[in-house]
Amino acid sequence: MFSMTTYKNEWLGNVRPDLLSGLVVALALIPEAIAFSLIAGVDPKVGLYASFSIAVITAIAGGRPGMISAATAATAVLMVTLVRDHGLNYLLAATVLAGLIQIAFGLLRLGRFMRFVSKSVMTGFVNALAILIFMAQLPELNPATPGVGAFTYVLVAAALAIIYLFPRVTRAVPSPLVAIVVLTGLAMAYGWDVRTVGDMGALPDTLPVFLLPDIPLTLETLLIILPYSLAVAVVGLLESLMTQNLVDEQTDTRSSRTQECIGQGLANTATGFIGGMAGCAMIGQSMINVKSGGRGRLSSFTAGVALLILVVVFGDLVSRIPMPALVAIMIMVSIGTFSWSSLGDLRHHPRTSSVVMLATVATVVWTHNLAIGVGVGVLLSGVFFAAKIAQLFRVTSVLSDDGRHRTYRVQGQMFYASTEALMAAFDFAEPLETVAIDVSDAHLWDISAVQTLDMAVAKFRRTGTDARVTGMNAASATLMDRLSMPDRLPAH
Question: Which helix (H) or strand (E) element contains residue 466?
Fold first, then answer.
């Protein structure tokens, strides 16, 4: 339930750390926003404007204080074909529609389905993202990249030393910010020949303005952008809600999934009207924020506003920030994000949990698609859970003293995975007068269970045996009455 007191505390309860961490995030966002724009095939300002807008609006309307949302690779890759075939204006329209879809998902409270994502999938998601974050830095460490040489590795090592050692001196200032300031100052003072933020792309020198996407308002246009918008909406919310869970764990707090869905939707809808591309929560930047002390909404708001000020007002200075400093920060994030304990857990965790975790990691890293990886993990979790429940299913039987009546006692959960075992337990060739199928210790869950019981009763009756189902609980009886063949309804 919304509380103005709580909301105010989320803004003003952690002012100084939020301001400093937000500045660190803003500096780290700039090269990423440019890179994501290039992935989508648009001008760098599209990603930079989007990062500003999304960060600010989710700070105000989002459900997770301290989580950073901006333009991301996860959504950028989905727009490549649309931009190539139809141009920027269709991307902006698709962004607006994606936001409206996310708002609808929020109003429908679809975020509650996140509880079906198992801990193993979450761990795999986190580990995969840590690996992807590290892999994304490799081009900046590749000697084949112009401007990258042996000195680059020295600077990365120096920045990592500052990041990890400076907190032993003081935690008053985030060590990543110190690393950026120190390396930038030294690079400018000594004229070091290293790759800089400016090498990533030109920074905008004007503020974003409101604009309407220049597209025909026709059904044909809607059919063009709808598949892209739906994909962006689903992938964006999936990554946002997964990141939200992680930040909840990191900060030992709870947040609203429904509000986060609506906040992400509002951010994307507004962003499409200022020339920005769609985005979502960023696990890497969120971890930078949390590890730098950011906890409140002010940190995300500061990140967005500082980003815009830095690129528009101080663009010349920002463009001279050495990339090794930012690479070091992202390496720190990947190291801190990866769940190292999960490697040791492989030895004593259930094998199925380990398989789910590893499959999620492998799929995400292989496809670079979080939705596919998480989908594979959730599917495997469901299959393994169904198999485990099916193993607990049992059917025993007792024959009467006169050999004319048999009672089958069914125990456990009756659903699609247990129907084969149920049918295998019946001896339809046995000459009997009556058969009672006692389900007082069982529960029917789906149409497969109903149809299997229905089929069993019918097969017994075809051989001249009077079959009945007994002991059915109220919920199972209701399902049976609704789905069973009228002429084969068993007694219960």
Answer: strand 466-470
